[in-house]
Amino acid sequence: MPEPAPRLEYATRPDSSSYLAVIRVVGVGGAGLNAVNRMIDAGISQVEFVAVNTDMQQLQISDAPVKIHIGRELTQGLGSGAEPDVGRRAAEETYDQIKNALRGSDMVFVTAGEGGGTGTGAAPVVAKIARELGALTVGIVTTPFRFEGSRRKSSADTGVEQLRAACDTVIVIPNDRLLEVLDRSTSMLDAFKIADDVLRQGVQGICDLITMPGLINLDFADVRTIMSDAGSALMGIGYATGEDRAKQAAERALRSPLIDTEIVGARGILLSIAGGEDLTLLEVNDAAEAVRAAATDDTNIIFGATVDERLAGQVWVTVVATGLGGKGRRATPTYVGAAPSTRSDDPLEPPSFLRG
């Protein structure tokens, strides 16, 4: 039975004053698909989701409206067997279908878990196609927990380097550093869920700045300025309540265990500040000043602030530092957690390890 063509929505391009950037998020492999499902559940708006996998069974249960089964002949729909070369060949075999699905994109996020087969091998191929089409291409991936073994770590290291060569910017989320702040009673399943949700927050923190109205809005050109040809990037997330909450959230984001080095050497910083209707402009300034103090005078910092009525009393700060050469002092870790989703009408509660 022939494979159905992906469902596509091609954007028309009106005049620049009313044009909305076309943003697509591509989940590649099992972890990528899990992250996409979380993003869809979080209600991230004005973004099209694409699922790419060799495993037909996983693909069928994905919530993504556009699904691309890669390597039909190569894997017979059974996955890549944790072999990155199989993932790469599978994506190359489906090159035209992937290209058709991404055509017309202004920005493409490629999200995956490094260390397996499909995500590690196919993500660089997807990124290369997106960049060939002229899209700002951002990779956002996790690296394995230590307990997953040295073989997966070696595969992940190779995969990250290949992805860096194909993307404008790559944000690497080291799962192993999450262990520094997770409670010892956290189950393995919950640890993987938290890692998936941090992937979601990385994408949502950037997308919301572009697509959601807020106190301070950014447009796509601002984001492109920071992330185009920027190389390695790091992401930190901070949360706070009470007095000086905005400044504290920013400082916690800067000391996040997801950030391996201090951001002094960053060429650019993208700063996302989210709070409830009680968020003030002075608090936004406090957060921005805290980040500015941690950077150098010539670092290009752009920031935006969005409002969610369910975040009353809370401030969430996401910092993406780009253009890092991998040098610098190791940051002192503090708390980290996935930011709240935006679909439910219930009040938002931070994870337990953020409240400690």
SSE layout:
Blueprint: E1 23-28, H1 29-41, E2 47-53, H2 56-60, E3 66-69, H3 72-75, H4 84-93, H5 95-102, E4 107-113, H6 118-132, E5 136-143, H7 150-166, E6 169-174, H8 175-178, H9 188-211, E7 214-216, H10 220-227, E8 231-241, H11 245-254, E9 268-275, H12 281-294, E10 300-307, E11 314-324, H13 352-355
Parallel strand pairs: 1-2, 1-4, 2-3, 4-5, 5-6, 6-8, 9-10
Antiparallel strand pairs: 7-10, 8-11, 9-11
Helix pairs in contact: 1-6, 1-9, 4-6, 5-6, 6-7, 11-12
Describe this entry's structure for a reader.
The protein is an alpha/beta fold. It folds into 2 domains: 23-167, Rossmann fold; 232-355, 60s Ribosomal Protein L30, Chain: A. The protein is built from 13 helices and 11 strands. An 11-stranded mixed sheet has the order 3-2-1-4-5-6-8-11-9-10-7, sandwiched between helices. α1 (29-41) crosses α6 and α5 packs across α6. Residues 1-17, 326-348 and 351-356 have low confidence and may be disordered.
